[in-house]
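Subject: for your reference before the review

Hello V.,

The reviewers asked for a structural picture of the protein, and I figured it would be easier to keep everything in one thread rather than splitting it across files. Below is the amino acid sequence we used in the manuscript, unchanged from the supplementary table.
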Amino acid sequence: MTQKHCILIGAPVDCGKRVRGCLMGPDAYRTAGIAEAITALGHSVEDLGNLAPATVDVAPASNPKVYKLAENVGWTQTLMTAAQEAAPRGMPIFMGGDHALAAGTVAGMAAHAKSLGRPFFVLWLDAHSDIHTPDTTDSGNLHGTPVGYVTGRDGFDAYPPVPAPVDPANICMIGLRSVDDAEHAVLDDGDVMLVDMRMIDEQGISAPLQTFLDKVHAANGILHVSLDVDFLDPSVAPAVGTTVPGGATVREGHLVMEMLSDSGLVTSLDLVELNPFLDDRGQTANLMVDLTASLLGRRVFDRPTRSYK
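And here is what came back from the structure prediction:
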C-alpha cells in the first residue's frame, strides 16, 4: 500500500446534541493508540492537537428547538478551513466529536476536490441519514443536519456559504436504520445511494459498496469517509449517545475498511460520535482505531489479540 502522511485533527465538538461526552473523543483515540497503529503500518503521522470553534454572532434560529447554533456554525467555519489547509499535505483524519463536525470537514474537502478539478464523493457510514436542516429537525440537534448543509439545502443561512455543494448522486449511505419522515421525503425522491440494513442482510455489504467504489473510480473522484460509531451494532460499540440496535458487525466493519483500503480512493476520514463516558473499558475507542488501521492497510491475519485483564 502507498505510504500516506496522516494528519490527525482533534475536533472535540460536543454541541451537535444534548448528550454530553463527545468532547473527550479525540483524546480517547489518542489513548487507544491511533498514532501508533498508523505508524506501525508504515505511514507517517502529524497530530495538530485539538481545534476550537471560531467565535461567531448569528441571529436566533427560526426553529426554537435548535441547540447551540452559534457554536455549531463556529465549528463548521474552523473545520472547513482546517480541511482545506491539511488536505494538500496529506490525509486528514478528523477525530470527533459529534457528527455536526462533518458540516465543516465535508464542505472543506469538497472545496479541496474542486480546487483539483476532480469530482468529490462521500461514503456515509451511519445509522442515520443526517440530512435534516435547522428548520426540519424535531430534536433541534444539529448533528442530524450536516448532509443537508453540504448538499445545499435551504435553512442554513447562519452558516458559511458552501464553497462546493456536494452532488447527492455522489453520496452513498450504508448502515441506515433510523430515518425520520422529513428525511424520507428528501431521500425517497433524491439521488443518494441508500444501503439500509435490510439490503445488507439480503445482499451482503460488499456488493453495494463495490458498486459505489466503481463509480468513484470511473469518475477519477476523491472520496471522503464519514464513520459514525452508531454504524456499528451497540453490542460491539456501546460508546455512543444514539444507539440503534441491528447495526454492522465487527467483521462487516472491517470488510468495509479493507475494501476502501484496496480501492486506494480515500483521501480523508471522519471518526465521529465516540462518547468515552459511555464506553466499556475503551472497547469502542479500540474498535474504531482498529477500523482505521484496516482502512490504512492492516489485514485480517495481522489483527492483534486484545486483552482487557
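For the response letter, the relevant points are probably these. The chain has one domain: 5-302. The domain at 5-302 is CATH 3.40.800.10 (Arginase; Chain A).

Happy to draft the paragraph if you're swamped.

O.
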